[in-house]
Write a sequence for this structure.
């Protein structure tokens, strides 16, 4: 490096990563991966200011103040994005796990008062500090696996005060964890039993009190709803989405997971950023998503854990050009999985994505699901310098291994994250 640490110039790099094997989705063909065997990345103000092969590297921009990081040939990818998680919950549902192994279904358990409702009770019992500790550890676990953007939903509060409390927890976590946190109000997740006779009253509370108040307090980035026979009808979700859109929020939807309930079409009607799950989506639903630019978030953890048989129609999504995304759906009931690499593996093995598709699914395409496609998801000039160094040769190894963490280093906004102990981290610089 000494030969390029030379001339001082105005437009010098604040930091550079050299000797990198860079993998990112191609800019002109988002379906394939571009690999620069011997490349470098220059960073200014937390954003990528130069990227390309070493032979073109502008050495004169490396000055005495430039921090030079030698990747020693490591694979470097964009920071991964987990765009669908339910990290804020107390307790666990291992008893339900046992019941399901004996043959009871997720729907039967939900209808008999278990499922989401039991997590709501366990969450209520925890203090906000206790809850924060749990969410912090869960989120940091994702970061250690190379995730630099995490979407976190509420949904285990189910009343005004509790949902606001969960949002406050998410907001505090976003200060404490070295990752970009996208905050989602999952306002319509499950109907509390006390509203069984008057669904409308609950939907009223969510639409007229909770949602406006969460927006007024600056606590959320987007809104989500669970459209399903055991949850909320398309009409109820539609009402919620109208309100959210009026308040300037983008929407997402849990759609067509257990039945074709018209969720994808609804997503399209509201230009939702994404529709998620989608095992039962119809071809018409896929076409509608293609028209509205809504991406398909597939959640193989829930498919696996609930031993579902109906596969999401991956070929139909490909046929109509709907971008495929993968996420963990980390939650205590249907997907107690806190590993994006495992979600990638399952996306390939269970749903038939190619390893290349799985890589693009958790980088470029996932950025669209959280509305951050201008900032993250690919390595290109102008984007935020969220990068991961891996002890791997090729991005296809990301979904290949199971149960190993090949993440060597995480870089957020051009800052290296140094992990220590089980739950500690620090930054190699304070800027950015
Ligand atoms: O995304 N589908 C709804 N919500 C979660 C499951 C929540 C739970 O069972 O606790 C999901 O799979
Ligand atoms: Fe979910």
């Amino acid at each position: 490096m000494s030969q390029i640490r030379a001339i001082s110039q105005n437009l010098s790099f604040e930091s550079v990563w050299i000797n990198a094997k860079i993998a990112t989705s191609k800019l002109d063909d988002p379906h394939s991966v571009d690999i620069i065997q011997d490349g470098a990345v220059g960073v200014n103000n937390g954003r990528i200011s130069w990227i390309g092969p070493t032979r073109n590297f502008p050495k004169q921009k490396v000055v005495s103040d430039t921090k030079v990081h030698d990747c020693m040939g490591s694979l470097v990818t964009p920071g991964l994005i987990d765009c669908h998680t339910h990290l804020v919950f107390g307790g666990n549902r291992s008893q339900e796990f046992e019941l399901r192994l004996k043959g009871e279904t997720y729907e039967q358990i939900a209808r008999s008062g278990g499922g989401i409702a039991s997590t709501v009770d366990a969450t209520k019992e925890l203090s906000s500090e206790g809850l924060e500790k749990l969410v912090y550890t869960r989120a940091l676990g994702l970061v250690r696996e190379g995730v630099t953007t995490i979407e976190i939903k509420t949904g285990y509060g189910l009343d005004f005060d509790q949902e606001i409390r969960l949002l406050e927890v998410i907001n505090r976590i976003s200060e404490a964890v070295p990752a970009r946190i996208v905050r989602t109000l999952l306002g319509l997740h499950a109907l509390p039993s006390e509203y069984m006779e008057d669904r409308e009253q609950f939907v009223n509370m969510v639409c007229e009190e909770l949602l406006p108040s969460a927006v007024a307090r600056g606590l959320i980035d987007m809104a989500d709803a669970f459209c399903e026979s055991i949850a909320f009808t398309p009409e109820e979700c539609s009402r919620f989405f109208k309100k959210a859109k009026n308040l300037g929020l983008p929407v997402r939807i849990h759609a067509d997971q257990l039945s074709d309930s018209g969720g994808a079409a609804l997503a399209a009607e509201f230009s939702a950023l994404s529709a998620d799950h989608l095992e039962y989506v119809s071809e018409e639903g896929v076409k509608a998503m293609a028209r509205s630019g809504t991406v398909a978030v597939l959640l193989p953890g829930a498919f696996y854990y609930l031993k579902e048989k109906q596969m999401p129609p991956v070929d139909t999504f490909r046929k109509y050009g709907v971008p495929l995304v993968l996420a963990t759906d980390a939650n205590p009931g249907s997907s107690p999985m806190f590993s994006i690499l495992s979600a990638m593996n399952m996306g390939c093995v269970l749903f038939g994505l190619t390893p290349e598709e799985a890589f693009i699914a958790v980088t470029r395409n996932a950025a669209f699901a959280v509305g951050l496609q201008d900032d993250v998801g690919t390595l290109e000039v102008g984007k935020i310098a969220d990068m991961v160094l891996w002890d791997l040769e090729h991005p296809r190894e990301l979904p290949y291994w199971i149960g190993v963490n090949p993440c060597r280093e995480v870089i957020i906004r051009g800052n290296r994250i140094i992990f220590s102990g089980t739950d500690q981290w620090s930054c190699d610089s304070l800027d950015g």
Notes: The radius of gyration is 22 Å.
